[in-house]
Amino acid sequence: MAKDAARLTRLLDNMSSDCKSSSQSFFAEEPECGAGCTINYMVKPIFYALKHDRRLVTPDSRWKKGKSRPLNSNCSDISCFLRGYANVNMCSGARKGSSKTREDLWRKISQDDVTFFEELSPVPNIENLVIDKDFAKYGLFWNVAQILDFVMQPSENTARAINAIVKSNDLLSPKNQPVLGVHLRLGDSCSDPERDKKGRICQGLEAFIPHIKRMIRTFGYKSIYLATDSSTAIGNATRDYPQYKWLYNKRINRNKYKVFEQASIKDELSIEGILFGHPKLRKQFDPYDEMINFLADTIILGRYTHGLVGKYTSNMDRIVSAIGSVHFGRQNNGKRNCLQPAISIDSPWCFDFMVNSGISYRNQSFYC
What is the DSSP string of 132-162? Predict the structure, then answer.
């Protein structure tokens, strides 16, 4: 398994080494969705590029815009945030001369290639996705995890944010280790008009506590890293459950997310709707900062904690378990075929993009 993981990493690393050697490039439009959705969206195009020896060209990213973006940052796509995409996003020279009219559109490929993109429920056909049977034998989760772990290499600016959070929380100290990761998203998960399609239910910290207690009782965690957009959740955690040591990202100004707490489903508010379309509320949010904070929490949960309580209807939590499994395997020299402990309180893990292939514990299908 470790040898095949290393081989897949080399294939990913070599994807942009010689742009002229590939048969054809194709253009992947950035989706109009949130940060986690944007990251997960790129996995299928990468599978396709590997399998068919093609090169992936990505457009300028909307997330790069914002007052918090460093002045010396000259990147234009998702590699502003993730160093892995500097390789996978391919062919910077080709990108400059590319246009949607001269290259295949990813959207059209996904419509035309019915073998590769057949909508199988609950999971895609793994042999249609991966480059060969050596990888197929490990299953969908392993293959998705290897790709996500490769692309989720933080850029310099993202790494700086992660290191600051790790240091301020003393996350690596023996007095805090092992750390349990908890992801609690309130915000637009309570006001998003498409939350039913995404299988989400608006639940507070109290819904997570029984599972947190079980994990601590079983594995002896000394502290909890709480990734959340809610200042109310942090206040409730420290006030109502003082027996636990709570750690969190202190660089986030969570007051701005109260606009979601004050909204209802009728208001149809979502984070991507505000960031890229809402004229009145947009000034309170910074796309660059939103992506940095999302990635910092995601990578900390995946690589600095030792277990997860969350929801697999969340793109973040599915990414966390994927990159966490690879990180855990490396810590054990790849000899142990096991995963970090995780409890999803609403659905099993799933993978796809905008395919109604997820099934929640309430037997509700959702777009995974």
Answer: SHHHHTTHHHHHHHHHHHHHT-B-HHHHHHH
